[in-house]
Amino acid sequence: MQRISFEMDDIPAPLTVSSEARRALEGLSAAATPEDLTAHRAMCDRVQRELGSIQLARHGVQMHEGEVAGVAVRIYVPPATRGDGVLLNLHGGGFIVDAGSVTENVPIAAYTGMKVIAVRYRLAPEHPFPAAVEDAESVYQALLAEHGASRLALYGTSAGACLCAQLVVRLRGKGAPLPRALGFFSGTADLSRRGDSESFFRPAAERLPDTGQFFEYVARGDRSTPAVSPMLADLRGLPPTLCIAGTRDFMLSQTALFHQALLAANVDARLLVFEAMPHAHWIFLDLPESDQAFRAMAHFFTARLRAASPPA
C-alpha cells in the first residue's frame, strides 16, 4: 500500500472556516525552522517580543519579568481583575525554544480577569528530562502554598501540554493537591507512540523515523514510563480537563487519545476540535478561530475556578 502524506499547502482551504483562516491556510508554508538552535531561539524570541507587544497593547495587559521559587517566570496582570484565581502556563516550543510564554497568555489574562504566570523552564538539549518538569513543579508548589489548589489552574500548548500532563501525574504520585482545572492544548501525553495525524500533517522536515517526539528533552528517559508518557499512568482523579486541537493539527490524534484515556478514567474531560485548523492555530493572532480558542480556554478556567469559590 502506498504511503500518503500531505503538506499544508497541498490541501485547499475549505469554505467552512473564516475568510481570514482561508487566506492563512492558503499562504501557510511548510518551510523548515532554522536548523541552528541559536538562530531558532532568536527567531522565537523575536516572535514572542513582536507579536506579544501587539497582544499586550490590544488587551491592556501588563507583563512583568520575575522569579518564583528561583525559576524565571513572566507574570501577566489583566486591566480588570475578576476573581482571585491564578493560572499557571507551561509554554510550547518542543522543549528546546520558547514559542509561547507571551503569545499563549495575554488573551487568557484579559478574558479571565486573572493573573497568569508563565514558567520559563530550562530548555533541552542543555537541560533534558526531568529539568523542565522539576522547574514547573517548583513554581506550582510555591503557588500552591500561597493560594491553595482550588484557586489554581494549569495549562499548556504542544510541548507545554505534554509537560502539564507530566506535572499532574508527578504531583499525584507525591500526594500533592492537584490544580482545579487542566488545559491540554494540541499536545501529546504518550511519547512512546506516534499518532495517526502525524503521518498526514507533520511538516516533512520534522518527520524523524529514527527518533521519538521531543527526543532532545526525553534524552535517556524511558518513554514507556508514566513519568515520561503520563497517559500510561492511572489517570483517575485528575482534574477536569479541556483538550483542544484542529482537524489539520498533527497532534490531533494524540490530543484525542488523551481525551479518551481521561474519559475511561472517569475524568471530566472535554474535547474541542476546530475545523481545518493547524497545530496550535491560536498563534495566528488575527484569525476569528484564534480568538474563539482563547475565549473557550478562558471560559473553561473561569467556570471551574468560580465553582470552587466559597459562597459570599
CATH topology: Rossmann fold
Q: What's the CATH superfamily, by name? A: Alpha/Beta hydrolase fold, catalytic domain
Considering DSSP H and I runs of 4 or more, what fraction of the residues is helical?
25-40%
Compressed to H and E, one letter per element, the order equals HHEEEHEHEHEHHEHEH
As a whole number of angstroms, the C-alpha radius of gyration is 18 Å
Number of helices: 9
Structural class: alpha/beta
Class in CATH? Answer: Alpha Beta
Q: How big a fraction of the residues is strand?
A: 15-25%
Can you tag this structure with a few keywords?
312 residues; Rossmann fold; 9 helices; 15% strand; alpha/beta; eight-stranded mixed β-sheet
Note down, in words, how this protein is organized.
With 312 residues, the protein is an alpha/beta fold. It has one domain: 3-Layer(aba) Sandwich (Rossmann fold), CATH 3.40.50.1820. Helices cover 36% and strands 15% of the residues. The chain has nine helices and eight strands. It has helices at residues 19-26, 37-59, 106-112, 131-147, 159-173, 196-201, 215-218, 252-264, 288-307, and strands at residues 62-68, 71-77, 86-90, 115-119, 152-157, 181-185, 241-246, 269-274. An eight-stranded mixed sheet has the order 1-2-4-3-5-6-7-8, sandwiched between helices. Helix 3 (106-112) packs across helix 9 and helix 4 (131-147) crosses helix 5. The model is unreliable at 1-5 (pLDDT under 50).
